[in-house]
Amino acid sequence: MAAAGTEKDAHTGGPSAAVFGEEQEALVLSAWGAMKGDSASLAVKFFLRIFEIAPGAKQMFSFLRDAGDDAPLENHPKLKAHAVTVFVMACESATQLRNTGDVKVREATLKRLGATHVKAGVADAHFEVVKTALVDTIRDAVPDMWTPEMKAAWEDAYDQLAAAIKEEMKNAAAA
Ligand code: HEM
After folding, report:
1. Residues 6 or more apart from 89 whose CB is under 8 A from it?
2. What is the ipTM of this complex?
3. Is 82 touching ligand 1 by the criterion CB < 6 Å?
4. Do 25 and 97 contact (CB within 8 A), yes or no?
5. Whole-prediction pTM
6. Ligand 1 contact, 103 CB (< 6 A)
7. Which of 39, 51, 94, 148 could connect to 28 by a Cys-Cys bridge, CB 3.0–4.6 Å?
């Protein structure tokens, strides 16, 4: 349990926050449970999918820019780390949504995320690309579990988290 004052209610609001219940959480967690043993290779697939949908996004990642066009993407530890983080944070955000109706991310983390993503030039459209790549990856990873309800639950969890980061990006951009 974090000490009082170290977390921030993102108050992302919206009608979806109110309907994120036990069932949605269970859907996200069951998929995550099936995927997490394989998270590093799924993370690579997730990112390859992002760059398939939006090849230009590669330019945003400093370590990819520096590596040159021919470097094999699957060998980038930072890229894997980012992908796993997005997976894990969406999952954690799902648990919190059920308990509190809000995404709670440590305030320092959220501030840093806001600043990092502004600096990297991430825009709203990129969050949509990442969402599509995320649900595509999960669909392909757990085809037997996949349902429209599971898709909606992951999208909801991701949207709430993305909204919290975007809010902090606005603050970072204004600072
Ligand atoms: C819910 C969605 C996302 C989460 C949870 C997330 C998480 C993170 C984290 C934890 C970092 C490491 C640096 C830090 O802690 O400040 C990071 C960096 C970064 N993220 Fe994201 N991210 C998300 C969405 C996106 C999107 C949509 C893009 C654009 C395609 C993106 C591009 C980047 C870039 C370019 C960096 C900096 C990498 C570098 O050059 O070091 N992220 N992100």
Report:
1. 105, 161
2. 0.95
3. yes
4. yes
5. 0.84
6. no
7. 94
